[in-house]
Design brief:
With 419 residues, the protein is of the alpha+beta class. The protein has 4 domains: 24-151, Immunoglobulins (Immunoglobulin-like); 159-281, Immunoglobulin-like; 283-326, no CATH class; 335-419, no CATH class. The protein is 16% helix and 42% strand. The chain has helices at residues 2-15, 288-295, 301-308, 315-325, 336-351, 362-370; strands at 19-26, 39-47, 50-60, 67-69, 72-88, 91-104, 115-123, 127-137, 143-152, 160-162, 166-169, 190-191, 198-206, 213-220, 226-234, 239-244, 254-264, 267-277, 375-379, 388-393, 398-403, 412-413. A hairpin with a 5-residue loop joins strand 8 and strand 9. It is globular, with a radius of gyration of 25 Å. The two termini are 49 Å apart.
Length: 419
């Protein structure tokens, strides 16, 4: 018994230093799907008055319904009711209803780059909270809704902790004069344009302030393998702001994680958030093999060869010509063929990615090529057999059988004789 006690004490001494007591992964809220479509976000930090949650709402002008103003023929008007609420269980701890009015020129009213935004700061205790945002247009009666859960850590009782991570516009003086939320807070978890000036910002909280902080940040792929990493040393007091500038432009289509780990003596804390790179990152110039592999799902061999044979620096133009040749409404800003393709790619990545990007999976590739099946028959694994799915496309007269051979939920196309 004495030997066992000694072994336990030795083991505890070995694992106690550097215990990772604070470890949080933030999942982004799902953007509104109904029209008007809007983006939402939430983040938590310690303010001078205590812990707080910032709820954010953003709607592009192009999603709003504008009508001419009676007294000004050159101006348009959009009006809607906006509710932003934070709940703990059934108890509302903050939020309100606002009657919003937006004025715009005819050109602005069609813009997706100009938007209405509201950020609400709400004092909050630690715990699992639920945020909800509702907007209703007064002219049309159209409405949309978003609801999601968020975790507010018990910052005050943690020896070492990290605020939420804000992707936003880089600022040289951020660590000297931090601003929350940062300028250009990216609410959309799908990243695309503007990545060259995007930094990840936040704060580190600790109970002591007599040593340097060792910081390691990483960009992880869908398998949680590190594809970028850097080590930093930060100085400061009990509340240390940071701004990190990862090379997001080098990433391709898919799901990724940004992770920061902090060490203060024997204390460790880690926080990460999930994001996706959108279709604007798909280009044969920077990612030739991956882009052509994706395009092969729908393109002919001759079309692929045409793009592949172009000199470097001109492949992007060939890529653009491919989409233009398949555009069902040439001469309009929209390309419904391209939009539908990448919408299916996003769906495949979100629903069929298991140990690999969803578009690479068998189910993902079938979905991208043919769309949603008319009928799906599924059976879980039993003692008698493996789990399987049968997809039927009635008009196409096609049927695909997917089997979960390894038990991880990957569902590969049925291979006769394989078990």
């Amino acid at each position: 018994m004495r030997a066992l006690s000694g072994l336990l004490i030795t083991t505890l001494c070995l694992i106690a230093p550097g215990v990772l007591a604070f470890d949080i992964t933030d999942t982004p809220p799902v953007p509104s799907g109904a029209r008007p479509r809007f983006l939402v976000g939430a983040a938590s930090r310690i303010a001078p008055t205590g812990a707080e949650v910032q709820l954010a709402f953003r709607v592009p002008y192009a999603e709003l319904t504008f009508t001419p103003m009676v007294d000004d023929s050159d101006a348009l008007l959009a009006q809607f009711d906006l509710t932003m609420v934070l709940n703990e269980g059934r108890r509302q701890i903050g939020g309100d209803l606002w009657h919003e009015t937006v004025r715009a020129t005819p050109e602005q009213s069609k813009s997706r780059d100009e938007y209405f935004e509201k950020v609400v700061t709400i004092p909050a205790e630690s715990g699992r909270l639920r945020a909800s945002v509702t907007m209703n247009e007064r002219q049309t009666g159209r409405g949309s809704f978003a609801e999601w859960e968020l975790e507010v850590p018990n910052y005050r009782d943690e020896r070492l902790s990290i605020s939420s991570l804000w992707p936003g516009t880089c600022r040289d003086d951020f660590t000297q004069s931090p601003q929350f939320p940062p300028v250009g807070w990216r609410l959309d978890p799908r990243f695309g344009d503007g990545l060259a000036t995007t930094c990840i910002m936040g704060e580190i909280y600790r109970q002591r302030a007599d040593a340097d902080l060792e910081v390691t940040w990483k960009l992880l792929d869908i398998r949680r393998d590190a594809i970028q990493t850097e080590h930093l040393v930060l100085t400061g007091g009990r509340q240390v702001p940071f701004s990190i500038h990862p090379d997001l432009e080098s990433l391709w289509l898919g799901t990724y994680y940004f992770e920061i780990e902090v060490k203060d003596g024997s204390d460790k804390a880690r926080r990460r958030f999930e994001f996706r790179m959108d279709e604007t990152m798909v280009s044969p110039e920077g990612h030739l093999e991956e882009s052509l592999e994706l395009l092969r799902i729908i393109a002919t061999k001759d079309e692929i060869n045409t793009i592949e044979s172009l000199p470097e620096g001109t492949r992007a133009a060939g890529w653009q010509r491919f989409w233009e040749e398949h555009d069902p409404t040439p001469g309009t800003p929209e390309n419904e063929f391209r939009d539908a393709f990448f919408q299916r790619v996003r769906y495949a990545n979100e629903h069929y990615g298991v140990l690999e990007p969803g578009w690479k999976s068998d189910r993902g590739r079938v979905y991208i090529k043919f769309g949603a099946p008319d009928e799906v028959e599924s059976r879980p694994s039993t003692l008698e057999g493996l789990a399987f799915e049968i997809w039927t496309y009635l008009e196409l007269r096609k049927r695909f059988v997917f089997v979960d051979y390894d038990g991880f939920g990957r569902f590969e196309l049925y291979q006769p004789g394989r078990s």
